[in-house]
Design a protein that fits this description.
The structure holds 2 protein chains of 2 kinds. By secondary structure, chain A is of the alpha/beta class. In chain A, 38% of the residues lie in helices and 23% in strands. Chain B is an all-alpha fold. Classes of the chains: A alpha/beta, B mainly alpha. The complex binds adenosine-5'-diphosphate (ADP) and magnesium ion.
Chain lengths: 287, 463
């Protein structure tokens, strides 16, 4: 039921481009986009790729100890928005971000702020598991080593063990820490990537469709893990599976063509959406 | 009637055959509406007919060209007056025949034209004209015959597509076997000649001896064991020049590859990459005189300033210039493997808060290392086999030395010097070139096999 960007544009094609532009700017988010105890706050975030606007005035909070899921048809800008939160968009040529994004009250796009330590505070897990071609141990030790988080080999061993433990992988790999991380199964690789992220003790973890390359059993294990991680971290997860959003998240944000259409309690979004577009998407009319 | 006219005519016959074959196929199926009763698409029947019309005729034409001149010449020779050929060496006879041919085709003739030669030339021209006409007739007859054969065979059940496919396959196999057989032939002849060399000089002396002076063996009464064929100085010389070259090429090539792949903005990359690759396009002879006329004197003068005694043909000069020549090999191969490291590796590293240089050092280089090593090995085998630069810039004297400021000689230089000038083809001196060539070939072959298997393994890793 995927709808391409082109098709989306065809659907809106009846409007003239001027109307479309005014439409886009007049659109406001339905529901309450703030969190009671916010860790990250985003206000009026716009993102451009060159001259093409991919995100259009999005405001959204990510609270402490909560999982926020972002859903919407492909190409609507979920990944783009997620990558703003740890400034991964900086690595893309021609990508420009405006608006305000704060982590614990600190503006992350501030000129004086170094994106390098920021990315240790806001970790990221990708769609396709991407362990480094190194041993399992070295994969987890990578972050702590470059940030100098430990003072001795023993401390590092301990950190690697506790990170793998938190990612629910320790039991499976404790006897083969020196083997390549790329030799693990897809689900294990993804948990290794989560362990690698946890090892630098982030406050926020961003996940971009972390289960889309995994089988249902591996997916269930990761979903359980996400629920456990909520105790210590704030999590923003992009998913194309509405069931997954319903299972793991407390709040859900629905994106459409670069706009944030509706935010709310996950329960409410899935049982009683307020906006017609959200309803159409939830009920599977497109997306 | 030129040969190319015949080829054009043949092509026209083929086009006609294609057209007719296609039409006949459609007709035999019972019209355009019934095409699906044909085994293959109509165009395959056309191709089938065209191949039958063209291929045998072309083969015949090739054979004809191969033998016509020989046959005509022998006919003409048989008719020459006996006293013209009596007591003449085969070389003289060749010259006379050459004159006849030149006269027949209206070229300049070396000797004065006697009536006999004039008569022979007339005969030659007449025979050649007849042969030419006969070829036209025969080739066109075969072409038309082939077309007719294809025409008769065309029916809906004929598996035209499969036949055309197998003919194409056969043509491809023929061409690739030409390449393979040629390589095999070269290797075999080198092996055979080396074998003859090792019958005169023991392999032990060749591979372990430290004295190389093959010139002595020139004297007819001293063939073989009396020449000194210890190749160690050549091997060490080759090794030293290659090592200096790699010391230049690897750091520069690798760094520029990393810069281009990871740091350079797109517009810089689009200019710098081709410019570096231009280095690979400079003819090696240009590098050679650059080394001999510019770099070597420069090094000698600098050495003199520092109070060092530098040979005017130093290993250093040849090695430095060869290194510059090899830079693009190292850089473009490394650039390829660095680019082949998936973007997701970089993303993973950046997302953990690594800087660009940390990412390059700790993730990208280790991931690309096998490929980089493979590229370097390929460059080494290129350096070992490089000839022109060392011929011009390294010396001829086979010094066994570890001093890069001395003059050394290399395997390739010695091959060149052994074979230039008037040589007897069965003296140890000449055959030594084959032994050296075989050694060189084996070493570069092994290096290439290792390098390619490393590169391939590395490629598989990310598929
Ligand atoms: N690197 C990029 N350069 C240019 N345009 C991009 C880039 N990445 C994404 N886009 C565009 O931005 C829009 C949003 O993409 P994305 O954030 O990947 O959507 P989603 O993750 O919701 O499928 C799409 O129209 C896409 O074509
Ligand atoms: Mg996406």
């Amino acid at each position: 039921m995927n709808i391409t960007v082109d098709e989306m544009e065809k659907m809106t094609g009846a409007m003239s481009s001027a109307e479309l532009a005014s439409e886009r700017h007049s659109r406001t988010t339905v529901g309450d986009f703030t969190a009671a105890d916010p860790r990250m706050t985003c206000r009026n975030v716009d993102v451009w790729y060159g001259s093409k606007q991919a995100i259009n005035g999005v405001s959204l909070d990510i609270g402490k100890n909560e999982v926020v899921s972002m859903i919407g048809p492909s190409g609507c800008g979920k990944s783009t928005f997620l990558r703003c939160l740890n400034r991964m968009n900086d690595t893309i040529d021609g990508c420009r971000v405006t608006g305000s994004i704060q982590l614990d009250g600190q503006e992350i796009y501030d000129k004086s702020l170094d994106p390098v330590p920021l990315r240790a505070q806001v970790g990221m897990v990708f769609q396709k598991p991407n362990p480094f071609p190194k041993s399992i141990y070295e994969n987890v030790a990578y972050g702590p080593r470059i940030h100098g988080l430990t003072n001795s080999k023993a401390e590092l061993d301990e950190l690697v063990e506790s990170s793998l433990e938190k990612a629910g992988l320790w039991k499976e790999v404790k006897d083969r820490l020196d083997q390549p991380g790329t030799g693990l199964s897809g689900g294990q690789q993804q948990r290794l990537c989560i362990a690698r992220t946890i090892a630098v003790s982030p406050e926020v973890i961003l996940m971009d469709e972390p289960c889309s390359a995994l089988d249902p059993i591996a997916t269930a294990i990761i979903e359980e893990l996400i629920d456990e991680l909520r105790a210590n971290y704030s999590i923003a997860i992009v998913t194309h599976s509405m069931q997954q959003a319903a299972r793991v998240s407390q709040r859900t944000a629905y994106f459409h063509l670069g706009d944030l259409i509706e935010v709310g309690e996950t329960n409410q979004i899935f049982t009683n959406p307020q906006h017609r577009l959200t309803e159409d998407y939830i009920t599977g009319r497109f997306g | 009637m030129y040969a190319w006219t015949l080829i054009v005519v043949l092509l026209m016959v083929m086009a006609l055959a294609y057209h007719l074959g296609r039409k006949r196929a459609i007709a035999s199926a019972g019209g355009v509406t019934q095409i699906n009763t044909l085994h293959s698409l109509p165009s395959y029947y056309g191709l089938y007919a065209a191949i039958w019309a063209g291929l045998p005729a072309l083969l015949l034409m090739g054979l004809w060209f191969g033998f016509q001149d020989q046959i005509v010449t022998s006919l003409v020779t048989a008719n020459l007056p006996a006293e013209m050929l009596d007591g003449q060496s085969s070389g003289r006879v060749g010259l006379i025949l050459n004159d006849i041919k030149n006269l027949a085709t209206g070229n300049i003739v070396s000797a004065t034209v006697t009536p006999e030669v004039q008569a022979a030339a007339d005969q030659y021209a007449r025979l050649a004209r007849i042969a030419n006409w006969a070829m036209w007739l025969a080739v066109l007859a075969v072409a038309v015959g082939g077309m007719a054969y294809a025409w008769l065979r065309t029916e809906p059940q004929m598996r035209a597509r499969n036949r055309v496919e197998s003919i194409f396959k056969f043509i491809m196999i023929t061409f690739s076997s030409i390449a393979i057989l040629t390589t095999l032939g070269i290797v075999l002849s080198v092996v055979f000649e080396s074998f003859r060399f090792f019958q005169m000089i023991s392999p032990l002396e060749f591979f372990l001896g430290t004295n190389w002076s093959p010139q002595i063996a020139l004297r007819a009464d001293q063939v073989g064991a009396s020449g000194a064929f210890g190749a160690i100085p050549l091997f060490t010389g080759t090794l030293m020049v290659s090592l200096i070259a790699m010391l230049v090429a690897v750091p520069i090539g690798l760094m520029s590859a990393i810069y281009l792949a990871e740091y350079a903005p797109r517009n810089v990359r689009s200019i710098a990459k081709p410019v570096i690759e231009v280095l690979a396009g400079i003819p090696t002879v240009v590098y050679g005189f650059f080394a001999a006329l510019t770099v070597a004197p420069l090094i000698r003068d600098l050495g003199a300033l520092a109070g060092l005694n530098v040979a005017s043909e130093s290993a250093l000069a040849a090695g430095l210039v060869m290194g510059i020549m090899i830079i693009p090999f190292v850089s473009s191969l490394s650039d390829d493997v660095i680019n082949a490291v998936p973007q997701s590796m970089r993303d993973g590293s950046y997302a953990l808060g690594a800087t660009q240089s940390e990412t390059i050092r700790r993730v990208i280089i280790p991931a690309a290392l096998p490929g980089i090593v493979g590229g370097i090995l390929l460059a080494v085998s290129r350096a070992i086999g490089e000839t022109m630069i060392v011929v011009m810039a390294a010396g001829l004297s086979a010094n066994l030395t570890a001093n890069p400021l001395d003059s050394v000689t290399t395997v390739t230089v010695q091959i060149v010097t052994l074979l230039t000038g008037d040589q007897e083809f069965d003296s140890a001196k000449t055959l030594a070139a084959f032994a050296l060539g075989l050694t060189l070939f084996l070493v570069t072959l092994v290096l290439n096999v290792i390098a390619l298997s490393i590169v391939r393994k590395y490629r598989e890793q990310y598929e």
